[in-house]
Amino acid sequence: MIDVLVAGGGPAGWAVAAACARLGLNTELVDPAPDRPWRATYGAWRAELPTDALAAVAARSRGEAIGTIRHQLGWEYAVLDNAVLREQLATAPVRVLQGRVRDARPDPGGVTVDLGGREQRAAVLFDATGAARSVLGAQTRRSATEQTAVGVLVDTDAARNVVTPGSALFMDWRPHHGEPGWPTFLYAIPVTSDRVLLEETSLARRPGLELSALRHRLHARLAHHRIAVPPGDEERVRFPVDRPLPAPGDWRGPVVPFGAASPLVHPATGYSVATALRLAPRVATAVHDALSRGGTAAAGTAAWQAVWSPSALAVHALRRRSLESLLRLPPDRVPDFFDTFFALPQQHRWAYLTGREDVRGSAAAMGALFATAPWWLRRRLVLGALDPRGLSALSDEVNTK
Ligand SMILES: Cc1cc2nc3c(=O)[nH]c(=O)nc-3n(C[C@H](O)[C@H](O)[C@H](O)COP(=O)(O)OP(=O)(O)OC[C@H]3O[C@@H](n4cnc5c(N)ncnc54)[C@H](O)[C@@H]3O)c2cc1C
CATH number of the domain that 18 lies in? Predict the structure, then answer.
């Protein structure tokens, strides 16, 4: 019997595995392709990253956003160097196995994990298998709300018409793609000193906007800015932002979802990597302390509570409400909505975007948005939050098995 088995070698799986192993827990990580590099471009607010991860920052820039007008966010955006981050995590004494977790059978003494052909006993299994799937088999009855995007890398100089050196454009909602319909924005982020990622993004839609539509808009937007579409690879993004929140009744003792599987994904931005990196040491400490008190059965519960404190559950529910309101805004008013949001005082925007356990701060941010919103938006926010389709979507979250 080992202490911790982690299913999934993405950033969340590695973060929790490394944190557990560094505390002396006997830790294994299993992934079907454990050496496959992480290909996604991972960005985060720099101040949200834990200190260790700062050494893996490949580019940092002043955060800006545009609804219909430009706003300074007042903090920095950072893009991670995936190889450096991974190397840093892999210095921890984690045993890495190639394989796939096929099933997990929890019992009061731990969990028996089927690795396809062999079994492993562990006190705790972290399910870090990503947003698309889960060894818990959690599913909703409705289709997922997805973030989708298509992006290309261009030289910093070529992108000057869109984003000036030293700046990162978190969102540009101006419809320079020239198409009516579902609102999409340009994400324009320096990824190294001489390359910028330009990505046409649908923040959240149920179901996600097709990648072909995003590609078409991206190319039209680049043409508008007189930027040639570069040959070569594009980044394709599709992941759900409303995976069910685990209700306490869903908690399965030693099988603990982590990362996008948990879901640590912020419903209104799609971000989860910085949260997973920050949270991993606290979760590992909870497991370590429970096991050192001799409680195999308590270790899973301690991990669940470290990931989903009552405050985290409350904030997640608030964020899901605001996602439902966002989904119901008239498409042509979405840029105005973001102007209102980005004009809020900095502490409100920061609390809403990063305060995962800050119930008071998140509620105050939503209250401030409501108070400063024009009447048409207030009406929409209230109607969106009370829309029965949104309420039934939330109640579906308890029917996850
Ligand atoms: C292209 C793209 C760009 C993104 N950009 C950002 C960003 O800038 N910032 C941000 O915060 N988020 C971003 N996200 C969203 C999200 O944070 C990422 O999806 C992130 O990879 C989630 O990390 P994770 O470790 O939870 O899961 P994943 O990275 O999906 O890793 C899951 C791992 O589990 C393995 N696995 C699956 N099934 C099993 C099994 N049964 N047994 C064992 N292993 C299994 C998979 O092979 C995979 O290696 C992006 C997503 C995409 C797709």
Answer: 3.50.50.60
Which helix (H) or strand (E) element contains residue 201? strand 195-205
pLDDT (tens digit, 9 = 90+) per residue, 144-161?
A: 899 999 999 999 999 999
Q: Strand 57-66 relative to strand 43-45: parallel, antiparallel, unpaired?
A: unpaired
Last residue of a domain, one of 293, 308, 323: 308
Q: How far is ligand 1, taken at its centre, from the CA of residue 278, in Å?
A: 16
Decide: 170 in ligand 1 pocket, CB within 6 A: no
Buried b (16+ CB within 10 A) or exposed e, 22-45: bbebbbbbbbeebeeebeebbbbb
Kindly state if the Cβ of 239 falls inside 6 Å of ligand 1: yes
Based on the fold, state whether residues 221 and 173 are members of the same structural domain.
Answer: yes
Are 316 and 384 part of one and the same domain? yes
What's the total number of domains in the chain?
A: 3
The predicted-structure confidence for 165-200, as pLDDT tens digits, reads as follows 999 999 999 999 999 999 999 999 999 999 999 999
Does 10 sit in the ligand 1 pocket, CB within 6 Å?
yes
Are both 185 and 297 inside the same structural domain?
no
Mean pLDDT of the chain: 91
pLDDT, residue 395, reads 46
